[in-house]
Design goal:
137 residues, 5-stranded antiparallel sheet, binds adenosine monophosphate, binds zinc ion
């Protein structure tokens, strides 16, 4: 599966050069061109899936295992102090490239990288509403 208009399909296939950290039959791992921190990388499947909703189950499992391997290796190399592993689904969630990818963002003490949200408060109403709806599914 491939989308000819998709930049990550082209990068994953090696048609557009990238700073590749790792490659296998299923994935290419590259350095992000606009990194949040030194070493920010992306895990990109070679097949085109727009987002996590669409991602093949087996590939989803492999992506998480690869994320674990990559951050373990990169923590050593970069001497970072922690990692954010995240991915965005849909424009409302900040997705800008509509080919599934996982961000591996190394974190350094006092790095000033902003990933987060203002803490809310779980109300009883909202809790009941969601718990009831999920039980009906
Ligand atoms: P997202 O906003 O989650 O869709 O993330 C897209 C990411 O892809 C951003 O962090 C971009 O900096 C990165 N990106 C876009 N084009 C390229 C490219 N040609 N090479 C490497 N990273 C890219
Ligand atoms: Zn694609």
């Amino acid at each position: 599966m491939r989308d000819d208009n998709c930049i990550f399909c082209k990068i994953a296939a090696g048609e557009i050069p990238s700073a590749t950290l790792y490659e296998d039959d299923d994935f290419r791992v590259i350095l992000d061109i606009e990194p949040a921190s030194k070493g920010h990388a992306l895990i990109i499947p070679k097949e085109h899936y727009a987002n996590l909703y669409e991602l093949d189950d087996e590939l989803a499992a492999k992506a998480m295992v690869l994320a674990k391997k990559m951050i373990t290796k990169l923590t050593d190399i970069l001497e970072c102090d922690g990692y954010n592993v995240l991915q965005n689904n849909g424009p409302a969630a900040g997705q800008t490239v509509f080919h599934f990818h996982m961000h591996l963002v190394p974190r350094y003490k006092n790095d000033n990288v902003k990933i987060g949200w203002k803490l809310g408060k779980l109300t009883d109403n909202v809790k009941e509403e969601i718990l009831n709806k999920i039980c009906e599914k």
